[in-house]
Write a structure and sequence with these properties.
heterodimer, A: 222 residues, mainly alpha, Rna Polymerase Sigma Factor, Chain: A, 2 domains, B: 212 residues, alpha+beta, 3-stranded antiparallel beta sheet, elongated
């Protein structure tokens, strides 16, 4: 990630997102040589939807190939042995397959959903007790389908912008953020170190999610 | 849904998303998010960021054995998991899971104040507190950070008013006297990142000051 993003950061002026043309959607193919993994945002979600709707094993195979080596790397960096990490990855991949019917592309990108599953499983295993998780929000399937298309487009765009914003951070700040989300930092370190680094992009994430929140609220009130 | 005015600080939500938060604080985050759409959105934003980072990580080698185990597992019939604990009254599912039942196992601390310890480990402790209407919890310090989330009723202290869903973040240097609101007993979830100080806290709780 860092190598890829460094190229972007050094060759682009760090303009505010709103001023930069042509970043919407999958517009990062101009970095095709080294951006295989970062141009796939939408594809990953498509694969997961195919797994959910068609029990598509080929699509699952693509998810496996993309996420397995990265999940294992993440788990090792957050303190697990290679063998323990593979055990967790196995559970995560099988959970993706078995719980795909719960995936809602209007509320989460594939990577965000998988990231959460991996954390839940990792912590269940490490602590030998269930990780406390929020109650699921009850959203009727019909209203879910009605809002999904729009919500998914805006979610994907925002995630692309988030990625761009990360790419424009100085290397040291980007490292901190990567280490925080990978799980290498303690809560104290996250408190002290990431606020500043994320300050410039957090309003962007929040705007997107604020919008999502209002949409969900509308659904629930209907 | 009642208006929540005191939310989780960003670093707590981020630490939860990243799996870097101890069990006791994780319980507070899960309980608050269960009743706060705003913080749910903020948590999902953090997970979006986590996913973006995950997508861009360097790859490491994985074994052929892992692939075989996963793909062999796809067609296995697996017994459905028991459903996640559901909200019971004022207690969101995460708390129901923690209590192992619908109701806390209260123990009296005197003066009508009750507590139910939920968890304690090296990273901190979590308990439920029951404070009768208008009752003050005496000044207490708490080595470390203390999070207090209201589940029923309300309390106020030197820093403000806290109603259902609100969470107070008290640094260890905060010298405060939380007082339950009048009318309904205040039930809250309290978590610290320090071990419980039985010697310090309990005797003081046994001598409650009545301030209405």
């Amino acid at each position: 990630m860092i190598e890829t993003l460094t190229i972007g950061a050094e060759t682009k002026m760090p303009l505010p997102q709103g001023l930069r043309p042509g970043y919407a959607g999958k517009s990062m193919n101009d970095r095709s040589a080294s951006s295989e993994q970062i141009s796939q945002g939408c594809e990953q979600t498509d694969w997961l939807v195919a797994v959910r709707d068609a029990r598509d094993k080929a699509a699952f195979g693509r998810l496996y190939d993309h996420f397995t080596p990265r999940l294992k790397g993440m788990l090792i960096r957050s303190g697990m042995s290679g063998a323990a990490a593979e055990d967790v990855v196995q559970d995560v991949m099988l959970t993706i397959w078995r719980k795909a019917h719960l995936y809602d592309e209007g509320r989460a990108r594939a990577s965000a959903w998988i990231y959460r599953i991996a954390r839940n499983r990792q912590i269940d295993v490490i602590r030998r007790r269930p990780r406390p998780v929020p109650d699921e929000m009850i959203v009727e399937a019909e209203s879910r389908e009605a809002h999904d298309a729009d919500a998914m487009v805006s979610l994907e765009q925002e995630a692309e912008q988030l990625r761009e914003a990360l790419a424009t951070l100085p290397q040291s700040q980007r490292d901190i953020i990567e280490r925080a989300y990978v799980g290498e930092l303690t809560q104290v370190e996250i408190r002290e170190a990431t606020g500043l680094a994320l300050g410039t992009i957090k309003s962007r994430i929040r705007l997107a999610l604020e919008k999502l929140r209002h949409e969900l609220k509308d659904l629930r009130d209907e | 849904m009642k208006q929540i005015t005191h939310h989780l600080p960003e670093w707590l939500i981020r630490s939860y998303a990243a799996g870097s938060l101890g069990h006791a604080f994780s319980l507070v985050v899960a309980t608050h998010v269960s009743q706060c759409d705003e913080c749910r959105a903020r948590l999902e934003a953090e997970e979006t960021a986590g996913g973006v980072v995950l997508e861009g990580l360097e790859v490491v080698d994985t074994s052929e054995d892992l692939r075989a185990r996963v793909f062999d597992g796809l067609d296995e019939d697996v017994a459905p998991e028991p459903p996640a604990p559901r909200r019971k009254g004022i207690y969101p599912g995460a708390l129901v899971a923690e209590m192992g039942s619908d109701q806390p196992r209260w123990r009296s601390l005197g003066g009508g104040i009750r507590q139910a310890i939920l968890s304690e480990d090296k990273q901190g402790s979590a308990r439920l507190l029951y404070i009768p209407p208008g009752m003050a919890v005496p000044d207490h310090t708490h080595g470390g950070l203390e999070l207090t989330l209201v589940l029923q009723g309300s309390f106020h202290d030197e820093t403000g008013e806290f109603g259902v869903g609100d969470v107070e973040v008290a640094e260890d240097d905060l010298d405060h006297t939380p007082t339950a609101g009048i009318g309904e007993a205040c039930i809250c979830l309290a978590a610290t990142d320090a071990p419980l100080k039985f010697k310090g806290i309990v005797p003081r709780l046994l001598q409650p000051m009545f301030r209405i």
